[in-house]
Every structure is written in structure tokens, then in C-alpha cells.
């Protein structure tokens, strides 16, 4: 008892402190914001970093300028294991020019490096760096993908028949990069250590207009506990089927699942598009065993009858649409 009381007091204290801290941070942020807004408008002396007489970005002073120049060189001369740097050549130097600009335009060293790299990797670079590397290393050979038709699979369905695997090759030679992109290479020696394995993907060609046109009862027996149409001024968009022999729910016809999820008062719900204008809806399911996009055959299990959503007892709420128009399901199935 004493312990609980202590903890309560502690919690209250902590809440008070947190509240105070939040207020303090908020106050400081407000002050800081005012300060930076004022400072951004202020004119300051800075260094414009230029190439070919055009401004790339701005930094605060000449020390920062030197650092940025060095980091541009470092950025483009990075080497990996098995690589050796031979040469790094810029087509022109980065130049520093003293300027007066608004304080907000002055970048940090990292931001300035980013701006220069973006320009160099862009379509109209102001600066070109040519890097030559010698390599002697193992390289991955990416695998290719081969597509084959499968008339047993429905259109839009893909199945990986054989998984692809990258190969490995040993290469020795010289590679030339311009602004970070490989421009050319001179391979002195190359040896395939492991051939890549082509991935084989089967693509379905079977038509998706697949419904038989005849619906079967989606439950294992049962009776219509509530009919289609207006009851007590409320529209009942389907029929309710209750007291079946087992709770298994099956697809009324072959089709593609267009929805399998939870939908408000419907609870767990599945919609199947039979590809011939007919759509069927199964609601209040305890669970479903299909997923969106899946093609399901007539009579195959899609879920279990339940009472999720607005349902007082276990039953299936079943709706039928024909070309988007709601229909009375009893005109399609006989229970
Ligand atoms: Zn209903």
C-alpha cells in the first residue's frame, strides 16, 4: 500500500517536471525562431564557391571553402576493397569569391558539399572530375530473368519457377569514372568463378472472365434467416444465412478476390469479382483464408462463418451485384 502511494507521488512530480520542460523548450524554440528570421535577412560577408564563373553554393569563410574543396575530392576518390586510386583530375578548379549575401543563404560545409555533388551528378555539371582506379577483385554478375507463359495460371498471376542467383567473376583492369559514373574500363584479366543462374518466372495466360455464370450456395446448408429488401424502413442489401451444418464459407463462383479485410459493420468481409459482371460479397466472417488479387475456384473455401461487425448471432451476410447493381441473392441461389 505504501509503495503504491509513493509511486503515485513520484509520477505526479515527474508529470509536473515534464510539463515545465515542454513549456521551456517551446519558449526557447519561439525565441530561436524569431532570432533566425531576423538573422536570415541580415547581410553578411561570405565565400561564393564558383566553377567556370558560376556560383555553386556559399560558405562562411575561406577555411570552410578549403574544407569543402577537399571533401569534394575525397567524395569522388573513395575506393573499395580490391581497388587502387591511380589519378584524380578536375577539369577546372573550384574558386572562392568574397561576397555579401543574406545570412540565410550561407550553407554548412555538409550542405555545400551536397550542393556541389548534386550539380556534378546532374545533367549540366559545372565541374568534371575524372578518376582512374585500378581494380583486382571479385564482382557480382547479376542474374537475368526469363518469362514463360503458363496457360494453367490466370492472367496477372506470376510464379517464380526457379529462383535466380548472382554469379561471381574476378576482374583485373583499369576503370575510368567521370563525376562518379563509370565511363569506360579496360579489363586486363577476367575469369568467371561462378555463372549466374537465370530466374524463370511463369506468367499466367488463362482468361480472367472466369465465372461459370451459375452461383452455388456459399454455405454448407442453413436457411435464410433474414431476406433481401426493406425491413422496418431499412434496406437489407443481401440475405442472411444461419444455422449451417458446418461454418465453412465457399466461393459462390470462380473469380478474383477484390477485397479481403475488415469493413465497419460488415466485419470481416470478402468480395469476389467473377469477371462476367457478377460480384459476390461475404460478410461477418470469423476469418478469411483468401487475399486480394487471388483467383479462387467455385466451391473452394474462402473463410469461416462468424459474427464480426454488426451481427447479433453467427450468420453469413451474402450480397450479389450484377454490373454494379444490387440484386436479390435468392434469384441466383436456392437454399
Ligand atoms: Zn445481413
Would you write up a description of this structure?
By secondary structure, the chain is of the alpha+beta class. It has three domains: 43-126, no CATH class; 134-206, Single Sheet (Resuscitation-promoting factor rpfb fold), CATH 2.20.230.10; 219-331, Glucose Permease (Domain IIA), CATH 2.70.70. The chain is 20% helix and 46% strand. The protein contains three helices and 24 strands. The chain has helices at 2-41, 62-76, 109-121; strands at residues 43-51, 54-59, 83-90, 95-102, 129-141, 145-154, 158-162, 167-178, 181-194, 199-206, 219-220, 223-226, 229-231, 234-236, 239-242, 246-250, 255-262, 268-273, 278-285, 287-288, 295-296, 301-304, 315-322, 325-327. Strands 12, 15, 17, 18, 19, 21, 23 and 24 form an eight-stranded antiparallel beta sheet that branches. A four-stranded antiparallel beta sheet has the order 3-5-8-9, with no helix packed on it. A hairpin with a 4-residue loop joins strand 18 and strand 19. Helix 2 crosses helix 3. The longest helix has 40 residues, at 2-41. The radius of gyration is 35 Å and the shape is elongated. It starts with a helix and ends in an 8-residue tail after the last strand. Mean pLDDT is 88; it is low at 1-38. The protein binds zinc ion.
Amino acid at each position: 500500500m505504501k509503495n503504491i502511494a509513493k509511486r503515485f507521488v513520484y509520477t505526479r512530480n515527474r508529470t509536473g517536471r515534464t510539463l515545465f520542460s515542454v513549456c521551456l523548450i517551446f519558449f526557447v524554440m519561439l525565441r530561436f525562431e524569431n532570432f533566425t528570421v531576423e538573422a536570415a535577412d541580415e547581410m553578411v560577408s561570405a565565400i561564393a564557391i564558383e566553377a567556370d564563373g558560376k556560383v555553386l553554393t556559399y560558405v562562411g569563410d575561406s577555411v570552410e571553402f578549403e574544407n569543402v574543396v577537399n571533401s569534394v575530392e575525397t567524395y569522388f576518390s573513395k575506393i573499395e576493397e580490391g581497388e587502387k586510386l591511380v589519378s584524380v583530375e578536375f577539369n577546372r578548379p573550384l574558386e572562392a569569391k568574397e561576397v555579401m549575401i543574406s545570412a540565410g543563404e550561407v550553407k554548412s560545409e555538409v550542405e555545400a558539399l551536397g550542393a556541389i555533388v548534386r550539380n556534378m551528378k546532374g545533367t549540366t555539371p559545372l565541374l568534371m572530375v575524372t578518376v582512374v582506379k585500378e581494380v583486382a577483385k571479385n564482382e557480382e554478375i547479376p542474374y537475368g530473368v526469363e518469362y514463360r507463359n503458363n496457360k494453367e495460371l490466370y492472367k496477372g498471376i506470376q510464379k517464380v519457377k526457379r529462383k535466380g542467383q548472382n554469379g561471381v567473376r574476378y576482374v583485373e583492369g583499369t576503370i575510368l569514372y567521370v563525376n562518379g559514373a563509370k565511363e569506360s574500363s579496360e579489363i586486363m584479366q577476367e575469369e568467371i568463378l561462378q555463372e549466374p543462374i537465370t530466374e524463370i518466372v511463369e506468367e499466367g495466360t488463362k482468361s480472367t472472365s472466369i465465372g461459370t455464370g451459375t452461383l452455388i450456395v456459399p454455405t454448407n446448408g442453413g436457411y435464410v434467416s433474414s431476406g433481401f429488401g426493406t425491413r422496418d424502413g431499412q434496406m437489407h442489401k443481401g440475405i442472411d444465412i444461419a444455422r449451417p451444418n458446418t461454418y465453412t464459407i465457399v466461393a459462390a463462383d470462380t473469380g478474383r478476390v477484390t477485397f479481403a479485410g475488415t469493413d465497419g459493420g460488415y466485419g470481416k468481409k470478402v468480395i469476389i469479382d467473377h469477371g462476367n459482371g457478377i460480384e459476390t460479397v461475404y460478410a461477418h466472417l470469423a476469418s478469411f483464408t483468401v487475399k486480394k488479387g487471388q483467383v479462387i475456384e467455385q466451391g473452394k473455401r474462402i473463410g469461416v462463418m462468424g459474427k464480426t461487425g454488426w451481427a447479433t448471432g453467427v450468420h453469413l451476410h451474402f450480397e450479389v451485384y450484377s454490373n454494379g447493381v444490387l440484386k436479390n441473392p435468392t434469384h441466383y441461389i436456392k437454399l
